[in-house]
Amino acid sequence: MKLTNKNSSKRQKINKMILEMKVPSPGESITEVEIATWLVEDGDYVEKDQPIAEVDSDKATLELPAEESGIITLKAEEGDAVEVGAIVCLIDLDGKKPEGTETNEPIVTEKPKEEIKPEASKTTYASGSTSPAAQKILDEKGIPASDVKGSGRDGRITKDDAVKAVPSMGTPSGGARSSERKKLSMLRRKVAQRLVSVKNETAMLTTFNEVDMKPIFDLRKEFKEDFKAKHGVGLGFMSFFTLAVVRALKLFPDVNSMIDGDYKISHDFQDISIAVSGPKGLMVPVIRNAENLTFRGVESEVKRLAIRARDGQITVDEMTGGTFTITNGGVFGSMLSTPIINPPQSGILGMHNIVERPIAINGEVVIRPIMYVALSYDHRIIDGKESVGFLVAVKEALENPQEFLMNNDPKKTLEL
Question: Residue 66: enclosing H or E segment and its boundaries?
C-alpha cells in the first residue's frame, strides 16, 4: 500500500524551492508511524511517486512515495516513531538529476580539499575494532574482543558492549555464540499487545471437530479443470470453508456478534476475515458480504486479496471491519492448534492439514482424508451450545457440500 498525502505539502521559498514531506494519515485512529526502512539515501535524486520509505503503522507496513522529483534530505532515522503530520524529509525541487546516474543512486559532491576543515573530520575505525575504553574493560574482565559482538558502526565494540559482556562459562564448544538485539516493528508490537489483551480480556475457549474431506476432494477432482478454464481461478478449499461458515453464521448469529461494553452488537451480514501470509508477516484482509458471493466470487476475492498482501499493496481499510475470521495453519503443516480470536470479533475458525487417517464408516475401517478444525470463541457472548452447534454445522456442510452448499446442482452452482 502507498501512503498518499491528501493535503498538499507546503513549499517554502528559501533561496530555492523546498518541499516538506509530511507523514499522511494511513487510517482512522492511527496517530503515529515508525520509519521501518529508508529506500533512498540522504542526497539521492528521487522521482515523483518513487517509493522512498517503508513505514510501520500498528495495522500494516505501508509504502511512502515521493510527492515530487528532486534531491532528498532525510529528517528521520530508521526506527524513529513519528507523528502523523510530522516532516520526515525535504525535497529540493531545484535539484537536477545527474546525467548518467540511476534514480536510486546517491549524489556525491566532491568538495575541494581546502574546504575540508580538520574539526569536521571523523575518526574511522576498521570493521570489528574496539574503542580504547572498551578494550580496557575487556582486559580487566579477561574477555577476548573476538568473543564480543560490537553494536557500533561497522561492528565496532563500544564501551557499553564491553560493560555488558559476560565471560564465557562452561566447556568451549568452538561454535558460534552470537546474539542479536533488534527492536520489534510497530506492527509486531501492536500484534503482541492485541494478543495479550485477547487472552486477558476475553473468556476464550476452543472446541474441536474433524471433517472428512473426501466429498470435497471428489468435487474438485471432477470440476476443477472446467472451473479454472471458465473463471480463471482455481477451485480451492477456501470457497467451501467460507460458504460453510456463512451458512453456519446464519444458523448461529451469536457467533457473528461482538461485545461493546455492556452491549452486544449483532450483524445481518457476514464479512469474513481470512488470514494470509504477506512479506511482513500475517495479514487478515476481509471478504465483504461473503453471503452474496458464489464459489467463483469467493475464489476470485481470495486470489485478489492474497496478491495485494503479497505485493504489499493491501490497505488498512481492507483489513478492518470483519465479523468472523478463518485461518488456515494447514498450509504450514499444522495438525491442530488453538487459534486466537481476532478482536473485536467473537470467533475464529482454524483449518489444519489434511491427513489420510483410518476411520470407521458403517462398521468398517476405511482410509479417508481427515482435517481437524478448531473454533475459538468468546464465552462471554457465545454459549457452549452455540459454539458446538456452529462447528457441527460447518462440518455437515463440508461433508455434504452438494446438499448444503450447492442445492444438489454442482454445475449450476459452480457456473459451469
Answer: none
DSSP 347: E
In whole angstroms, give the CA distance from residue 298 to residue 240.
Answer: 9
CATH fold group of domain 191-413: Chloramphenicol Acetyltransferase (3.30.559)
Residues 359-366: contacts with CB under 8 Å, at least 24 apart: 359/212
**Of 49, 139, 311, 379, catalytic:** 379
Beta bridge partners of 18: 12, 92
Q: Taking residues 309-334, report their average pLDDT.
A: 86
Question: In this predicted structure, what is the pLDDT of residue 280?
Answer: 67
In whole numbers, what is the pLDDT of the chain averaged over residues? 83
Q: Is the pTM of this model over 0.90?
A: no
User: What letter does residue 110 receive in the DSSP assignment?
Assistant: P
Among the options 154, 226, 311, 383, which is catalytic?
383
Please identify which residue in the block is written with the cell numbers 517509493. 51
Whether 97 and 25 have beta carbons less than 8 Å apart is answered as no
pLDDT tens, residue by residue, 51-91:
898 888 766 777 889 999 999 999 988 888 888 889 999 99
pLDDT class of 293 with cuts at 50, 70, 90: very high
**Would you say 386 and 252 are in contact if contact means Cβ atoms under 8 Å apart?**
yes
Q: Is 231 a catalytic residue?
A: no
Kindly list the domain boundaries of the chain, sorted by start residue.
Answer: 11-108, 132-161, 191-413
Lowest-confidence pick of 124-128, 200-204, 261-265, 412-416 = 124-128
Catalytic residue status for 379: yes
| CATH of span 11-108 | 2.40.50.100
Q: d(Cα 31, Cα 70) in Å, to the nearest integer?
A: 28
Number of Cβ atoms within 10 Å of the Cβ of 106: 14
Half-sphere CA count of 412, side-chain side, radius 13 A: 7
